[in-house]
Amino acid sequence: MASNQFQLLLFSFRFHGMARDAIYTSDIHSNGFSFDDKVASVFADMIGRSVPGYGQTLQMVELLAHQYAQEDSNLYDLGCSLGAATMALSRGAAGKTCSVIGVDNSPAMVERCQQTLKDEPVVIRCQDILDTEIENASVVVLNFVLQFVDKSARLNLLSKICHGLKPGGVLILSEKIAFDDADENRQQIGLHEAFKRAQGYSDMEISRKRTALENVLVPETLATHHARLKQAGFSTSNTWFQCFNFSSLIAIK
Fold this sequence. Notes:
This protein is an alpha/beta fold. It has ten helices and seven strands. The chain is 42% helix and 20% strand. It has a seven-stranded mixed β-sheet, with helices on both faces.
C-alpha cells in the first residue's frame, strides 16, 4: 500500500472535471450549503483543503478494510460522495470475494462518482443512506457523513448498520467533533480555521462557509459518539485518530 496513494487519488479527481474550490468567494446562497452540482464540481479540492488528516483517514480505510473485510461479504461506503473511501475499501479488500457498494443521495455526486470509478469493481447507488439496507456486511464506512444526518435519526442509522454487520464486522466513523469545554471548543475551531487559511482559504471564505453550514453540519462530542455506538449494539468502539476538531473511530460488532 503506497503511502502517497490517496494523495494521488485526490489529485486524479482533477482530471475528471474537478476544479479548485472558490464557491465562497461569491455571496452565500440563501438556501445555505447543499451537495449540489456546484459543490460536487469542486468537492475533491474542498474536502482536501478543509479537513485536516483527510488523506490519512483514506489510507486507514484501506488498511482497516484489508484487516476486517470477510470473504463473501458486503462493504458499504455510506455517503460516498466522489468515491474516495469506496476505492479505499475496494483496494483494501482486493483478493477477497467482497462486494463494494457506495451510496449517496446527491445525483450530482453519484454521476461524478460513477464516472470516476467506472473501471473499478464497485457498485454506486443514488439513494438516501437512511433507506439503504445493510446486509451481510463486514465493513461499513461513514466518512464525515453522520454529522449531516438529523440528530434524531443517528441512533436508528447506527443500529441498522450494527444489525447488518456480520460478527466481527466493523464501522469506520469519521466526524467533525465538538468539545464540552467552551474554551477548548473555541481553541480547536481556531486551529481548524488556521489550517484552512494555510490551504489558501481567505477569512471571507471561511466565514461564509461557516454561516452556510450552520444547522446543516451538526457536530457532537466524542463521548456522545461512543455512547451512541454502544447503545446501537456495538461491543466496543475506540478513537484511532484525531486532528484538531476532526476524529475517526472504529466500532466492532
